[in-house]
């Protein structure tokens, strides 16, 4: 399987068939498993074999298929599927630290990630230092001998800063810290975070992996020692496991993720180029544009792909941004991303509204900023719709 192309891995990786030899993966909708004898139950609780299961919170054949397939895609030794993207972020971070430890994190993060770092880990005695993730000197200055974790979004939400994975990893590893990367915006299609130095990679599978707005899910990838020795005990005892039905949805999503994400990223670049310099815009942010501050890093780290999301900073603040949103006819107003439907979001009043005004300003989340997740609609249709909405924003 390791010699297969990415497309082949996405269709066949991790497949296990029952005695019926079904074509599509089976959904094992069960919370528990039966043992032939009491001795078998005892033996399984002492040590679970590679094809044995105890309880759905611990593992399930359908979930196992999803874990194996995405680990094969990501180039990781193992994976653990979680109930949501935030369950995955929380599990990855919390399983690695204890009271008195130190964490260094990029400050440009999704609001819920910031909440875990600022309000949950700190409550249990973990010290967190926030830095400008794009500044390697800031990472060097922040890490200490007692730093246990360095955490960042490889492409930040919603201002689309791109973090140098290899650069941060070298700094973190110099003090023995574990590098945890939230890789949602980079997508498993374009990112090779593990080969670039990440120790743990986290995805919200709700986004591009499902990619069709159907189900919540998350996944954490890393070495087998970390996944089964450190993470699994935390996840199975705190209950953050993925349901078998949602795992099946994610499996089917993986079959088409490369086709979908390639089409979305191609559209995103064309849209960004079409609206760049529009008089209604303060700026158009897309990592694939040559004027993006980290465009050179995009070329080396993401094979030149700027992803499926762009951000539009509209002149006139919140009033103009709301006019823009209300004038759109094809994209929907929602707060997901990576979907087959284009989605427009106003971060300052939704996903990032709990941040202080000062922090939003520091992160570049202005009152006029729109996060635009590009779907699978016709590119020209989207460009025309956006142009009309931009004109309407200034009326």
- Low-pLDDT residue spans: none
Helix and strand pattern: HHHEHEHEHEHEHEHEHHEHEHEEHEH
Average of pLDDT? 95
**Helical content class:** 40-55%
Beta content comes to 5-15%
Oligomer state of the chains in this structure: single chain
Task: Please summarize the sheet with the most strands.
Answer: 7 strands, mixed
Give the tally of β-strands. Answer: 12
Shape: globular
Q: What is the helix tally?
A: 15
What strand order characterises the main sheet? 1-7-6-5-4-2-3
Distance between the termini: 57 Å
Which structural class do the helices and strands define? Answer: alpha/beta
Radius of gyration: 21 Å
Task: Write the SSE topology.
Elements: H1 6-12, H2 38-46, H3 61-74, E1 78-82, H4 85-94, E2 102-106, H5 111-121, E3 127-131, H6 136-142, E4 147-153, H7 165-174, E5 178-182, H8 187-190, E6 200-204, H9 206-210, E7 218-222, H10 224-238, H11 244-275, E8 281-285, H12 295-301, E9 309-314, H13 317-327, E10 332-333, E11 343-345, H14 357-363, E12 369-373, H15 379-393
Parallel strand pairs: 2-3, 2-4, 4-5, 5-6, 10-11
Antiparallel strand pairs: 1-7, 6-7, 8-9, 9-12, 11-12
Helix pairs in contact: 1-3, 1-11, 3-11, 4-5, 11-15, 13-15
């Amino acid at each position: 399987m390791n010699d297969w192309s990415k497309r082949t891995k996405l269709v066949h990786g991790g497949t296990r068939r029952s005695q019926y030899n079904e074509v599509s993966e089976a959904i094992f909708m069960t919370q528990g498993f039966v043992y032939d004898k009491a001795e078998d139950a005892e033996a399984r609780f002492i040590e679970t074999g590679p094809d044995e299961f105890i309880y759905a919170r611990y593992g399930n054949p359908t979930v196992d298929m999803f874990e194996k397939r995405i680990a094969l895609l990501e180039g990781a030794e193992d994976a653990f599927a979680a109930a949501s993207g935030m369950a995955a972020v929380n599990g990855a971070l919390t399983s690695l630290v204890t009271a008195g430890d130190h964490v260094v994190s990029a400050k440009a993060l999704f609001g819920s990630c910031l909440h875990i770092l600022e309000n949950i880990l700190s409550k249990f005695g973990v010290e967190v230092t926030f830095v400008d993730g794009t500044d390697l000197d800031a990472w060097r200055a922040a890490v200490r001998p007692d730093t246990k974790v360095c955490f960042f979004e490889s492409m930040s939400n919603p201002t689309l800063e791109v973090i140098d994975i290899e650069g941060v990893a070298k700094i973190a590893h110099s003090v023995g810290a574990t590098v945890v990367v939230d890789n949602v915006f980079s997508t498993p299609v374009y990112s090779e975070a593990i080969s670039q130095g990440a120790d743990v990679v986290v995805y919200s599978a709700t986004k591009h992996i499902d990619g069709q707005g159907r189900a919540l899910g998350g996944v954490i990838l890393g070495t087998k020692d970390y996944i089964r020795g450190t993470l699994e005990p935390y996840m199975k005892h705190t209950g953050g496991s993925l349901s078998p039905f949602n795992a099946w949805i994610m499996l089917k999503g993986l079959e088409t993720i490369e086709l979908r994400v390639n089409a979305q990223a191609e559209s995103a670049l064309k849209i960004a180029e079409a609206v760049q310099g529009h008089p209604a815009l303060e700026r158009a942010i897309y990592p694939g544009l040559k004027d993006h501050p980290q465009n050179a890093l995009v070329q080396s780290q993401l094979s030149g792909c700027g992803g499926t999301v762009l951000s539009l900073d509209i002149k006139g603040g919140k009033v103009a941004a709301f006019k823009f949103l209300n004038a759109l006819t094809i994209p929907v107003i929602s707060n997901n991303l990576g979907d087959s439907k284009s989605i427009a979001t106003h971060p300052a009043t939704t996903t990032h509204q709990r941040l202080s005004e000062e922090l939003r300003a520091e992160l570049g989340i202005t009152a006029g900023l729109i996060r635009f997740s590009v779907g699978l609609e016709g590119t020209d249709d989207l460009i025309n719709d956006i142009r009309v909405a931009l004109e309407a924003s200034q009326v």
